[in-house]
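User: Could you check the structure of this?
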Amino acid sequence: MKQVYILRHAKSSWDNKDLSDFDRPLSKRGEKDAKKMCSFIKNKNFFVDKVICSSAKRTKETFDLIADGLNFPIEEASYTEDLYFGDTENIINYLNRLDEKLNNILIVGHNPTLHILVEALTNETIIKFATCNLAIINFKGEWKTLDFYKSSLKSIIRPKEI
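Assistant: Sure, the predicted structure tokens are below.
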């Protein structure tokens, strides 16, 4: 079975109004939530084979704070602007091309794309996919057959509920 972990970046800071959206860092609350998520992930022994992360500052900072919980080297993550500007179809096409040896993938990105992706993969309605929420999606089959509505939502982990 394959698993797709979908993590929305933690809360960003709006302190510096001169920064572009792409360059906004995490807020103090975002850092706290990401550290909380890291501890949760570490305690549950989550494991990923590959990380695909938006190259925006807040997503990179979020992953940097949770990487230790996954025991995943930060420098081995793949960073792409496609997760900042992309859409669900692009993400699914990317997943379709993954090596079948990979079983657990983490995607770190932004809303509304990630919210739509979780719903599209699982055919579940999610009221809110807030900052630093982690969706775990199960998929039976090969990556090349992953498509809309073919997966199941195992859980959504929210920092405020940990």
